[in-house]
Amino acid sequence: MASPVESAGEKSAVLIAPVTALEFLGEDFLLTGEGPILSVYSLHPSIKECASLNVLQNYCIHGIRPSRKHQFGETQFNNVISSESSVLDKEDIIVFGGKGVRLVSFNTGAQCLTLIGPLLELQDWVLDIHWLKGQPHPLLGISLAHNAVLLLDAESGNILSFYSCVEMCLLYSALMIGPNWDSLVLVGGTVFNQLVLWKPTGTKLDGQSQVERRLLGHSGVIFSLCYHQKSGWLASASDDRSVRLWSVGTLGGDAGCGEESPTCLRVLYGHQARVFCVKLAANRVFSAGEDGACLLWEWGGEGKVGRSFRGHRSGGVRALAVSEGSIYCKEGWMATGGADGGVRVWRVSEEKKGSEETETQLDLGFTGQGCPKVVRLVDEGKSNRVLVCTDQGEVCLRQDDTWDVIWQGGAEFQSYCVMEITSVQVQNSDCNVWVCAVGNLNGGVQVFLVGQTGVGVLLRAGEGKIHSVLWVKGLFGGSWSWSLLASGSEGLVYRWTIKVIEDESGLHIQEETLLPFLLPPCAKRWLTAAVTLSQRKGLYLCGDRRGSLLLYNEREENDRRTDLQDQETENKQLGQGGPLSPISTLYGVHGKQGVTSVCEYQDLCYSTGRDGSVRILTVEENVLKVRRVQRACKGMEWIEKVLFLGSDVPEVQGKLLNERIEMKKIDRESASIAETRFVIVGFHSVHFVIWDPHRQEKLLSVVCGGGHRSWAYKRPIHTDTDPQAHTLGQGTLVFIKHGAVMASHSLASTENDVNGYTLKEGLHGRGISSVCHLGSLTKTGQFPEFWEVFVTGGEDTTVGVLAVSPKSGTVKVLSVLTDHISNVRALAAIRREETKGRDDEMNTFSISSLVFSAGGRAQLQCYQLLICLDEQQGQPICQVTQIAGHRLDEHWERKRNRHKTVKMDPETRYMSMAVERNGTDCVLLALGCSDGAVRLFRVTESSRSVDMLWESFYHQRCVLSVATYKLNKSHDRTLLLLFSATTDGCISVWDLTAVLNSKATVSWQGPSAPFFSIPVHQSGVNTLAISPRREMRQMEENVISLASGGDDGQLSLLHVKIDQENGDVSLQLLSHCTVPLAHSSPLTGLCLLSPTLLVSTSPDQRLCLWSVNSDGLCPLKVLFSHTADAAGLWAWLGQEGGAWVVVCGQGLQLFQLTETEMDKLNETVKRTVKEEERKKVIFPHISRTKD
């Protein structure tokens, strides 16, 4: 859940910001700081958010210090607070950040937060606060950023004492140690990359304390410090990517500053970027940094990494906390807070150690004859049995650490064979047996029971080589059973149904021959993957080695008998019982390297290939259609399959449906809309990788040598029915390498102590560049629902689809799109038809929109989004259909005579985008580009194409912002104007009317220059907003208000009249007003809520509301935004009065201007309008008197 904010100016605002502070209260509660919001999560009996409160107002929380804190084996010395709190079930907590300090009380019984006293604002930044003994009230030791310390009364806020160090340098981090003020020791990390230790009450020189110890060694500033009293260790985390451990002895109390000559025990290098946080425990070190990893260092073995915890997107980990259990090396909690706004917790313990970082791969000691070629797991996830087929025609089974030959093939199975296994249920029994199929070079396929090799049958699949054998479960003869597919020569795929029957003599295999499939002609003509579609009777989805996807229709015998007359011609050509040809083909869709897997889940089909992509498909009227493409991480081109996940939300633990027959229990309409979360399994160079595309992180990485080998993956035992992303990294990979059968770690491992939980899901970790509001979802009734839906584009190259519930503060990530290769700078959307749900009485609405995203590397993407409310769960679900994509470099490569033209700059970025509909099927996109061009594209939804219609390099400098305005004139005449703004502060206007509804848009040349241009700002114009002007309470369509914001902090307003004579368009400037210092930094976002109300934002973190009138701009209200580095905003009027504003930057914040607040603003605007009307009546009268 996100953090709801309450204040006088806004209501139920939702804040998503970097998590900058974490602290545990025992083993039961976790405190988090996100912006100024202090939140409390309950960890027992279930994980949930139980309280949230705005504590620091305009400051960001950087530290949380409970009064009963047990830190690294040392109980704090506030006995008064501890005894009183234990009786009242209350905990006093000091929260600080920036220059703000505040005392808060948390009631553990009622699970609520209460403010104690006012917000204290100091004159310097606070780096650390330490609870001290004091009578009758507790005292606080506060370390300041300029190497000073003050003593503060916690309740009254009075300063009792103040000391500074003789070195008045800037500190990046500080840590205070000691039971009372007289024995307090300060450890500071200076801007000079040093650690200094001094006592506020120690040796004085000119009234200032002296530095008593100085630790050198870091080559970067120190971000975090931690001290372990029992061992006398001090840990420091630095900008130089290292963690250093120092032996300083006992600090504080009678020991003072510890050892005379502190030594550096170890330097720990393992992070790939800056290290922000460090925590100490007995013989263990926890560290987290900008690379997004939290490392647990084991003290033994030269301080190597024991475990790596990852759970955040790009941007890194900003906060780290460990509970008492983790500190004492018992089972406890560890929590991380990320720059993406997410919070993750793990259970960690001492007993079970090891991960892929520390364990070596195990040789399973294969003892059979020949070289192993194929490896498979029997009872995957439930036992340790491994099945191997060798080049000598042997099948060996590993059980109880011993290898046994269970089947020996003849000479025809030597030198080459393929093998697949499956579990088959015995007819009229609940017993399952494992069946193995082995194919050879001569068209033979041996099928036998694993463990009972005497029960078997030899099948014939032609006379040539068997390229592959596949097991497929489907509906045959009215019952679910397994079929065996064998790819033979000439593109024929032979098929049999395989059943296991038990009679008095034992088990038997019964086979029935089916009509074969015929593959399309190609060089590599064999099948690599197949699945039956459970919701569509008789349909097979197959993939071949050429990379094509094929759809076959199984013809039942009874249907063929009744349709003999209709099939007479075909029977003459193919003969009765001829092979079946595909009814739908996507030729070479996965490239020339082939399809690796196909599967069906919740009425959607998924295919993978060695082209680095997962394709999500639908079958409409027996035609295969690609809904969208999901790519893996960069460099991961060899994808083997996808694994579907259960829900990753603690409150709702989803269950994986393993059997297709259970699909009938799912609402087919909802299932066809929603896409289930999945992870991608494949190879990245020499590593076997499990990649989570939703969180953009690797869950498992095993060095195995690459994809040209047989392998099998064993899931953790406890995740078979409820797979979670964070647990798949604990699975085991079994593979063949250099003639040996290897395992990533022991098959008998049941390790499940590293269980991660997502308390709060994160968004973009590197900042949000743009945001676009799609609409609202509402549901009335006994359990009403209200969701606002957004699309966000980030510097992490992803586009996110979010649903926000303002009432509860819940933020749900509906989809993450990863098609961009660079920063997503601009978003635009246009609504399609909005349809109601099936149950009109429940008022379930859906949103259907075309969404366009553009950014770096001159890349443009178009998606069709359908978002609706799931009627069963009341949660929004999203369907993404990829319409088209475009890149300028690829467009240039397809040009004729391109050698005569100058190649486009590969670093070109799309800076801004505007969208207009052109007819029922086409959309026009205008883009401002960094290479000085203004470009116009046409997107056709039906043909899924993007065409560039026009480009102009008139500006010769970066075009920062574009906007469009469409004016409907008489006689069905429509004007389309394009406004472009550049880095020189000029705004230009282009006439694009000719392109509207033109049948010759491809040959349309477009204007060579703008027909109107005016200098407005001293530097770049970052944002534009256009609206028809409201004059005398009436709208004037041909008079527009053009607002602009620039790098100079200036807000400008132009009133422009549009005239047209003899087909030529002209503009008349009516007025031009400016507010020179509207913001103290460049304006980055403007939006007109109405023709008379303007909203602006800036990195100065102010959200300003302005009244727009003929005389200019009048400030109405200023709100403070907790979103740093604001990059854009979007504002809209609510359905039931009021208005909403969303600001994006380093996070996202949603404001609601209540209906009462909007009424006050409207009254202010009306008063301004009345004054304008009175002036316009009086002014002519005065003029005539003077005459």
Automatic annotation (TrEMBL):
**According to the record, where are the WD repeats?**
215-248
Record key words, sorted: Cytoplasm, Repeat, tRNA processing, WD repeat
Show the SMART domains listed in the entry.
Answer: WD40
Provide the species name.
Cirrhinus molitorella (mud carp)
**PANTHER family associated with the record:** WD REPEAT PROTEIN, WD REPEAT-CONTAINING PROTEIN 6
Name of the protein in its database record: tRNA (34-2'-O)-methyltransferase regulator WDR6
Could you tell me which residues belong to the region Disordered? 558-580
Assembly description: Interacts with FTSJ1; the interaction is direct, and required for 2'-O-methylation of position 34 in substrate tRNAs. Interacts with IRS4. Interacts with STK11/LKB1.
Which PROSITE patterns would you find in this protein's record? WD_REPEATS_2, WD_REPEATS_REGION
Similarity-based family: Belongs to the WD repeat WDR6 family.
Pfam (any one): WD40
Answer whether the UniProt record assigns the keyword Cell cycle to this protein. no
Localization (cell): Cytoplasm
What role does this protein play?
Answer: Together with methyltransferase FTSJ1, methylates the 2'-O-ribose of nucleotides at position 34 of the tRNA anticodon loop of substrate tRNAs. Required for the correct positioning of the substrate tRNA for methylation. Required to suppress amino acid starvation-induced autophagy. Enhances the STK11/LKB1-induced cell growth suppression activity.
Q: Which SUPFAM superfamilies match?
A: Quinoprotein alcohol dehydrogenase-like (SSF50998), WD40 repeat-like (SSF50978)
